[in-house]
Structure formats: C-alpha cells, structure tokens
C-alpha cells in the first residue's frame, strides 16, 4: 500500500484493459489520477469505479495524437493537482496486415497514435516534471517492438520507435531526474486481443502456460512509476511469460 502516496499520475488509454487495471491499482497505492482516453463512456466507467473506492480522479477525453490535446491535459492536471510526477503512455492501437497489405493511411494512423502520441506526451510532460524536481515516464511498447512476427508491419514499426525514443529520452532527461523506461508486454488478455485470430498459437509459443493478464503489466508499471526504481532509466521491462527468451 502507498507505493505511490501523493503522486500525481497521468494514464493514457485508461478505459482499456491495461489502463483501467493500472488506474485501480495505482489508486489503491495512493496516487492521484488523471485518466485520459478517446472512449468517453469507458473512461467514465473506470473513473466511477476508482472513485467508489475513494480514489481522487480527473478524467479528460483526449486523443494522444493531438498536440493541442496534450497541452490541455497538462494544463488541467496542474490546475487540479498542482504537479505531475508520473506519466503512463499506455494508449495504443493495432492493425495486423503485412507490409504489402498495409495502406499508407493505416501506417500513418498507427504511427500517429502509438509513436507520435508518446513523443508528444514526453515533450509536454517533461517541463512540468522538471519543476517538481523529477518524475517517471513509462512507455508501453510491446514484444513486437523487439522481435518481428511476420505481420502487423505498422504496429511493429511504431513499437520499435517507442523503444528507441525512450532510450534517447532517458539519456536526455537523466540530468533533470526524469526517468524514462519501456514495458514490453507479451500476449495479454485485453480487448486488443479480441481481433487476433492467432491467440491459441501465440499461447502455445509462450513458455509460461497461460496468457498474460493486465495485472501482470500493472505491477511492472507500478514499480517503474514509484520511487522504488530511482536508478532505473532507459531500460526495457519485458513481461511476456518467456516469449522472447527463446
Ligand atoms: N494486449 C496485448 O496483448 C498487448 C501486447 C503488447 C502491447 N500492448 C500495448 O499495451 C497498451 C494497452 O493496450 P491494451 O492491451 O490495454 O488494449 P485496449 O485496446 O484494451 O486499450 C487501449 C486503449 O487505448 C485507447 N485509445 C486508442 N486510440 C487512442 C487515442 N488516439 N488516444 C487515446 N486513447 C486511445 C482505447 O480507447 C483503449 O481504451 C497498448 O499500447 C498496446 O499496444 C498490448
């Protein structure tokens, strides 16, 4: 309990499987939360659940690919809570097409959410974190940001970009005591998996004998957001049941 006591944490994609689980656990650990997503109804549901358990929550409908949107999120966060200590850049989308089936439009849409969204988050949160004497940014990449799968070309490229953007941000912001790390989830049972026709195959290919759960990721994000990880920056936390260990 209280691993995030007094910390103000922004979570993007908070209406989704992993984001909503992070919201619940982070609130139990004492965080004040800013929950954002494009899915307004889902966001309201998640926020109501957190508030019912005594959590202090601000919700903002926010498209992470929008620069204006990020300015608003940071302004409203500071107005409500006075500071921002951690950002979980979690929002993401997927397409599963190979390179020749990927249209330019699909490519750009995926990069704009998964990669540009994270760039903008880092760009607009760091000045506020600097004012607070530091902070922690956790970028959700994927095992598909480390290894190829033979499909989902645009997704792989976007998640690989997150991995390297994170490392260079870690180097750039260490002097400001702002830590920047990635998490690389494996196959995690959330709504994103609903459109994946290869789940059984992926499960068989995963050494650990079950699919991942949102909670498996949450506790990694909690560690990286908290002061328990103050010497950890630029690292890749792979949480995949051993998929990439083979
Ligand atoms: N589920 C998996 O197997 C898996 C594996 C590796 C990585 N990931 C990554 O984990 C993160 C969380 O995904 P999840 O599994 O919870 O999926 P999810 O689909 O349940 O949640 C994603 C959330 O992002 C929101 N979102 C989509 N576009 C947005 C935008 N433009 N602006 C703001 N919010 C937007 C959605 O509304 C949704 O609530 C994503 O970045 C995803 O790529 C997931």
Description:
It is a single chain. The protein has 246 residues and is an alpha/beta fold. The chain has a single domain (8-238), classed as Rossmann fold. The protein is built from 7 helices and 7 strands; from the N terminus they run E-H-E-H-E-H-E-H-E-H-E-H-H-E. Strands 3-2-1-4-5-6-7 form a 7-stranded parallel β-sheet, with helices on both faces. Helix 1 links the parallel strand 1 and strand 2 (32-37). The model has no long low-confidence stretch (mean pLDDT 97). Bound molecules: nicotinamide-adenine-dinucleotide. Nicotinamide-adenine-dinucleotide binds at residues 12-13, 15-19, 37-39, 42, 62-65, 90-93, 113, 140, 142, 185, 187-188, 190-193. Nicotinamide-adenine-dinucleotide binds next to helix 1.
Fill in the keyword field for this structure.
single chain, 246 residues, alpha/beta, Rossmann fold, 7-stranded parallel β-sheet, 7 helices, globular, binds nicotinamide-adenine-dinucleotide
CATH topology: Rossmann fold
Distance between the termini: 35 Å
Strand content: 15-25%
* Low-pLDDT windows of residues: none
Rg measurement, Å: 17 Å
Instruction: Work out the helix count.
Output: 7
Spatial arrangement of strands, main beta sheet: 3-2-1-4-5-6-7
What is the share of helical residues? 40-55%
Which ligands are bound? nicotinamide-adenine-dinucleotide
Number of strands: 7
Global shape? globular
Query: Which structural class should the secondary elements be placed in?
Result: alpha/beta
Reading off the top of the CATH hierarchy, the class is best stated as: Alpha Beta
Classified in CATH, the superfamily is NAD(P)-binding Rossmann-like Domain
**Elements, N to C (H/E):** EHEHEHEHEHEHHE
Number of domains: 1
CATH architecture: 3-Layer(aba) Sandwich
On the 0 to 100 scale, the average pLDDT is 97
Largest sheet, if any?
Answer: 7 strands, parallel
